[in-house]
Amino acid sequence: GLSSTTSLGLALSTMGLLKGIDPILTADLLWILRSMGHGDKIAIVDCNFPAAEVATKTISKKSPILLTVSLPEALSAICSLLPLDYFEECPAFHMSPQEGFELPPAGKEVIDQLKASIGEHSPDVTVRPMERFTFYEEARKCFAIVQTLERRPYGNVILTKGVIGPDGKDLKPM
Question: Which residues are the signal sequence here (predicted)?
């Protein structure tokens, strides 16, 4: 038979799974995504972001932590469910360095990957940079903050929720 440790690991890895929903999306995160309305924003951030403090200023005051997930993995799962706002000029922003500082190579790598993760589900969305301190202020206006295990610098994104149309797809302007 299975050892109790193996049984527990197997049980934990299969608990709460739903068909068609990425298992890294926790119950709290699913509640947040469903509770957000058109135009609400969500910040998905790295492990160094001051998520607990910033979350106290958000609409929901929630900050679920995805302990074993990189930023690109979290974005892929979230964007598989979350419609982006095509009525906004830019519904996705990533953090960028403040003036006078350069983006380190690891930061460029995570930004390239986060753009690919968003593009996987919303290929025609442009992801634009947002200066670091402006990003902190905008994150405080979000519906919630989702913290990941991402360790690369500048692995932070703000997404604006759009609308799902009658056909079940992201609603886009005519």
Answer: none
Query: Could you tell me if 13 and 5 are in contact, meaning their C-beta atoms sit under 8 angstroms apart?
Result: no
Q: How far apart are CA 39 and CA 90, in angstroms?
A: 12
Q: Please, are residues 69 and 26 in contact by the beta-carbon 8 Å criterion?
A: no
- Whether the pLDDT of residue 108 is over 50: the answer is yes
Cα 156 from Cα 135, distance rounded (Å)? 9
Which is catalytic among the residues 46, 85, 94, 121? Answer: 85
Q: Which of 40, 46, 121, 136 is catalytic?
A: 136
User: Strands 41-45 and 92-96: what pairing?
Assistant: unpaired
Asked if residue 131 is part of any domain, the answer here is yes
Judged against a pLDDT cut of 90, whether residue 90 lies above it is answered with yes
Question: Residue 3 domain-assigned?
Answer: no
Q: Please indicate whether residue 94 is annotated as part of the active site.
A: no
Report yes or no on 14 lying in a domain: no
